[in-house]
Design brief:
There is one protein chain. By secondary structure, the chain is mainly alpha-helical. It is built from four helices and two strands. The protein has a single domain, classed as Recoverin, domain 1 (Orthogonal Bundle). Helix 1 packs across helix 3. It is globular, with a radius of gyration of 12 Å. The two termini are 21 Å apart.
Length: 85
């Protein structure tokens, strides 16, 4: 389930469908601000080192990042995309 959510987030970041994201090629408007805050360390690293990530690399890096974050951040990602009643 986590991989599915991370794949969805990658696809939203990669709105142009190029198959990769980078500091210069990412749609930050496609996800809510609270989700961006969760991924802020990863996004800063991408910008600092001028890296681009494909979907597999993003999912792998995001999974490592989430392991170091509090459960509330993990739950935010797991709940991403669910409709609230």
């Amino acid at each position: 389930m986590l991989i599915t959510k991370l794949t969805l987030i990658f696809q939203l970041f990669d709105k142009k469908g190029t198959g990769y994201i980078s500091a210069d090629a990412i749609d930050l408007n496609a996800v809510p601000a609270e989700v961006l805050l969760v991924f802020k360390p990863l996004l800063i690293e991408m910008e600092t080192y001028q890296e681009s990530l494909d979907q597999e690399e993003f999912v792998e890096s995001a999974t490592v990042l989430l392991k170091s974050l509090p459960i509330s951040s993990k739950n935010l990602i797991l709940d991403f995309g669910r409709r609230r009643a």
